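To: structure desk
From: M.T.
Subject: fold request, one chain
Message: Could you run this one when you get a chance? Sequence is below, nothing fancy, just the single chain.
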Amino acid sequence: MNLFDRTLKIIARNHAATFLRLAFANHNVRLLGTIQNVEISLSVKPVDFVHQVLYDGKEYLFHLEFQTQHKATLPRRTFITSAELTEQFNLPVLTVFLYLQPRQKDIPNRYVTQLGKTVINEFSYPVIKLWDFITEIRQGKLRELAPLLPMLVKDPDETLLVEERALILQESDSQKRADLLAAAIAVGSRYFEREFLWE
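Reply: Done. Structure tokens follow.
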């Protein structure tokens, strides 16, 4: 697993409640726990993150996946992954994708089988475009996503890094704060020299 993927997994693990709020803003979904090291048995493939959640007295799996860019195979693969998780854990699965790199075109979020023009089966999932939440991140409402800011804005600069650091330092939990700073270095190194970032 590369450093960037590991960074996203740390953010997903430590701040699952934030992603629940983004994905299900109008529902009171409560985080119960995180299922570690989930793999499905097709061609053994780890999934980004699976959390146990509770809504209206019923338990669900919250399957969270990060995506930098859309791949044409993703809707079909997501359909299969969701089905495998449902079978493996015998719970309904809430699959949500978070996209990190801005894209003008619509993002496909459904897998469909058709006979001619008639839809026979359909599987869809919500897509969160994190660049739509830049203002909320900068205002501190979603400050735990600050390490992702360089990916979400055009031409990130030193001023952005100062802003990002100030947001991260507001985290009161020392371990989460350390993880966020490390995540900021990992993401920032895609745009800046690592030595400059450590300074």
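Reply (cont.): The radius of gyration is 18 Å. Let me know if you need anything else for the meeting.
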